[in-house]
Amino acid sequence: MKKIIFQTSTVIALTTVLIFSCKKKETTPTPEPAPATTTGGTTTGATASFTWTENGGTTLTADSAYWTTWSSGTGIRAYKAGYTNYFEVNWGTSQNNTAVGTKPLALSDVTFLKGTATYTNNATSNLNVTAFASNQLSGNFTVAISGGTVTTIAAGFNALPKK
Q1: What is the pLDDT of residues 96-117, one digit of tens each?
Q2: E strands within 6-135?
Q3: pTM (2 decimals)?
Q4: C-alpha–C-alpha distance, residues 48 and 138, integer Å
């Protein structure tokens, strides 16, 4: 009987020592990213965002937004609740048209899906690129649109990543 008690006590003691002697591995904190340098405007410490108003109403914020480019132009894509609110904005006739400045928006360069309605810009307009740094795009635009009850979209975008 004494042998069983001794063995049990020894196992418990060794288990306790092992549990308390294991040291947690310390983690190194993730360094903060370096501030972005800019070409006009500022994006330092910026968080990507795409916001818009419809007919001057409440400001809405997209769940996801990015800019993209292809051989014949540059554009922005923004989503809120999937395709429930979706923007496709295209400009330019060349790839990587991201220099700070005004970009003309021709007829139908802006497509906005809202629920089951499809809107397009019904007049020429401008998009303003206010900053481009570290592959992040910032700016704004206001367009007249047709296709339903919304007639004007005013949008701003900040530090959108390239996709």
Answers
A1: 899 999 999 999 999 999 999 9
A2: 49-54, 60-61, 64-70, 73-80, 85-91, 101-105, 110-114, 117-121, 125-133
A3: 0.71
A4: 9
